[in-house]
Amino acid sequence: MSSVLGIAPVTRIEGHLDVFMTIDLVNGVQTVLDARTKGQMFRGFEQILQGHQPLDAVHLTQRICGVCPISHGMASSLALEQALGGVPPSNGRIVRNLILGANFIQSHILHFYHLAALDYIDTTGILDIAPWVPRYTTPDMVKGAAASTFVQHYVQALAMRRKAHQMGAIFGGKLPCSPVFIPGGASQPVTSAKVTSFRTILTELRSFINNIMLPDVQTVATLYPQYYNIGRGPGNLLAYGVFDLDNSGTNKLLKRGRLTKGALGVVDTTQIKEYVKYSWYTPASGNLNPANGVTQASADKVDAYSWIKAPRYQGAVHEVGPLARMWVNGDYRKGISVIDRLMARALEARKVADAMDGWLSQLSAGGSYTRTLVKASGMGVGLTEAPRGALGHWLQISNSVISRYQIVTPTEWNASPMDDNKIHGALEQALKGVKIADPAKPIEALRVIHSFDPCLSCAVHMATPDGDTRQFVVTP
Amino acid sequence: MRITRRDYLRASTAAGVALSLKASGMLDIEKAWAAGTKPVVLWLQAQGCTGCSVSFLNSIYYATVDTLLTQTLDVQYHTTVMAAAGQMAVNAANAARNRGNYILVVNGAIPTGAAGKYCMLWPGMTALDGVKAFAANASTIIAVGTCAAFGGIPGGAPNPTGAKSVGSILGTTSKLINVPGCPAHPDWLVGTVSYIMQNGKLPVLDSQRRPTTYYGSTVHSHCPRRESETGSYIGGSNCLYGMGCKGPRTHCDCPSRKWNSGTAGQAGVNWCVESCTPCHGCTEPTFPDGMDPFLTVNNTPRAYDD
Q: Considering chain A, what is the average pLDDT of its residues?
């Protein structure tokens, strides 16, 4: 006799997400048969951006998400550079990469310690106060001295992620939300004093990642080896790539590419379509490439259950994130699972931090910006990566203002509902088959959900121009 | 000895910075916290981006967040960091609400369209209903970030979801403090909470219910570039008014406090104008539409209209 298990709200993510799972006994253990992920907050950035002067987009889109604002600033700058014909000087390209890298490090530290780790550590006797209580405590959690060490690292990690933002602000002006991004580069000029102070903090962060964070992730991997076989999902991966090493766009620290049905391939964004059969939008809003994206709400649509559209590449579900990037780049190809996601994220933090030291040496004292004039019309696409996956901005300028602005975010890829062919999204697929020892404490499901590092502010940015939404109510 | 006006301003600004930071800053935190029990904090996230929480995590001037979370504050609900999930988390929020006497912190705007369903805190609880229900039993309400304080970007035209500020939803209330910024500087939030703990009352507020300690002066009034010629390009060291800087109509202490400090009691490493780009006016009720366009980079610098 199946029942519905809801986690609403999911905590230790960014934003508002509810997850509902249909579970039933399979060989004596409650098992997830079906899962539905539901974004619960809308603002309507696409409509709000329309009519704004194009350069405003770099700053407005950063407020889509305060955990990954820099990625939006980067995507917006790249899209505007394409539309306006801007080319940053070398300093500008590198300064933007350094700020983005600083935020990647911040986000990956925050994710492992402050969002995910509490799924694995029992802090009873160590942190017995709110917000660490109440909590699920399960027999398989790390306890005792090992848990104590983890908690010490959790506290140390709070300081480390703060320092990563301090480091980023040296060039970024302030974090979160950096005002220096602009098509044509970055407003902040380079000085040798800034290079030195950036490098000092970077060295400390690299030491933390290597000596504390990576070993801690390995500890989780060693203690929970079964999670190498839990939470696989569709098995397809997609990465737009990030951290341009020159202005060609084709030479990146983490390459663009995909893994589809076991074969590596190139990414052609014309092959992306967003489906809306199970999303609260009109049929006319669906089956469209983001360059022609339409968003018309249809709040009473039968069978729909999410505000998130279902993006697909050549009709297939793809997962995005550090694992996708590291796999496509050839840096990590062990497997696709909860632990593989945690491991790839930590390894990527090290890879990016190490590369940043080299980039610092490529800077020269002086400006980082080549003025790029705003044109009356143009179109551009900016493809980059947020810490949690592939991010694209599609923009159109008409009559000197923004006439269309579409954003396809990583969590839209990862937390999408079913598409028109009733194929579930990546996280929904990853939850299918997960065994829940005690439905009152669905820690197994949380471990799967958190491995994707969901960011829901990003997942839903669309407007409902006309009125009503409908609450999805699960009935057993 | 004759000094130039520029020298005078530079010297007095530096002294003033030290003084104002001292006066508003080092609020004998240890004494405040040792004095009483930890204040209970319930933090609700509405139509926001988590930027104000991420910024809060960067706190260091008054205290770092590990101290704040383990020793100073009793944070009963904050969905970004709390261990509990789902119904367990909701129960914790409701139990704290029933006990009353807490500081309610809200970030994000409150959508009123579609009966508030554009933002659900949890099943059956819209942000609209939630902010009213949790405000009723709170001793103090802090609307952190420009979205909560004034509607912010979600409230920008055409405001598709009917987003409003916390103050608009709750009506006139003497319990409310607005701590805007996009995001809010961690010091503005932590310092305000510290003041309440130490003094048992709200700090002096301006007409927008912002603490005058942090929002009492305009950015322009103590900007180190105010005596320089207006420059005509982003990236330079001159006054950025011509490039769209909203310093003259924006209230906060960014020029002296700066951002992302690495040391307790010290100013930050940088700030918007120091990074050679204009102030966007993010602490004001008119952000973003009244600050549009943020930048003026084509060949005609903007004429003075403040």
A: 93
Residues of B with catalytic function? 49, 52, 147, 182, 220, 223, 239, 245, 254, 272, 279, 282
Which positions ≥6 away from A387 have C-beta within 8 Å? A67, A68, A71, A103, A104, A107, A108, A111, A322, A453
DSSP code of A313? E
List A329's β-bridge partners, or say none.
none
Helices B186-199, B5-25: axis angle to 10 degrees equals 50
Phi, psi of B238, deg, nearest 5: -90, 175
Dihedrals φ, ψ of A224, to 5°? -125, 55
Neighbours of B5 (CB within 10 A): 8
What is the DSSP track for A218-231?
A: HHHHHH-GGGGGS-
Q: Which of A112-116, A255-259, B183-187, B228-232 has the lowest mean pLDDT?
A: B228-232
Helix (H) or strand (E) holding B116: none
Cβ within 8 Å, pair B272-A174: yes
pLDDT in tens, A82-99: 999 999 999 999 999 999
pLDDT per residue over A178-191, tens digit each?
999 999 999 999 99
Work out the percent of chain A whose per-residue pLDDT is above 90.
86
Q: Does B123 touch chain A (CB under 8 A)?
A: yes
pLDDT tens per residue across span A293-315? 877 777 678 888 888 889 999 99
Q: Give residue-wise pLDDT tens across range A374-389.
A: 999 999 999 999 999 9
List all residues 6 or more positions away from B65 whose beta carbon is below 8 Å from its beta carbon.
Answer: A158, A162, B56, B57, B58, B59
Cβ proximity of A377 and A395 under 8 Å? no
Q: Please, are residues A121 and A147 in contact by the beta-carbon 8 Å criterion?
A: yes
Residue with token string 């100013």: B267
Closest Cα to residue B227, out of B81, B12, B31?
B12
The reply to whether residue B89 touches residue A9, judged by beta carbons under 8 angstroms, is: yes
Return all residues near A21 (Cβ < 8 A) that are at least 6 apart: A4, A5, A6, A32, A33, A34, A35, A36, A431, A442, A445
Does the CB of A124 have a partner CB in chain B at under 8 Å?
A: no
Asked if B274 lies within 8 A of A446 by C-beta distance, the reply is no
Identify the structural domains of chain A with CATH numbers, from first to last: 40-430 (1.10.645.10)
Contact partners, residue A28, CB within 8 Å, separation at least 6: none
Place of tokens 């309507």: A44
Q: What is the pLDDT of residue A460?
A: 63
Rounded CA gap, A316 and A273, in Å?
10
**Per-residue pLDDT band at A31 (split at 50, 70, 90):** very high
Residue A142 and residue A121: Cα distance in Å, rounded?
Answer: 5
B198 Ramachandran zone, left/alpha/beta (phi>0; psi -120 to 50): alpha
Higher pLDDT, B300 or A153: A153
The DSSP secondary-structure symbol of A375 reads: P
The DSSP symbol for A280 reads T
CB contact under 8 A, A464 and B157: no
pLDDT above 70 covers a percentage of chain A that reads: 96
Angle at which helices A90-109 and A69-84 cross, to 10° = 150
- Write down the residue that tokens 């901005």 correspond to: A393
First to last CA, chain B: 35
According to DSSP, the residues that pair with A369 across neighbouring strands are A185
Determine contact, residues A56/B292, Cβ cutoff 8 Å: yes
Place of tokens 């930050």: B268
Cα–Cα distances (Å) from B141 to A164, A381, B29, B119, B292, in that order, read 31, 42, 21, 19, 30
pLDDT in tens, A208-221: 999 999 999 999 99
Distance from CA of A238 to the nearest CA of B (A): 25
Q: Which residues of chain B have pLDDT under 70?
A: 1-36, 297, 299-300, 305
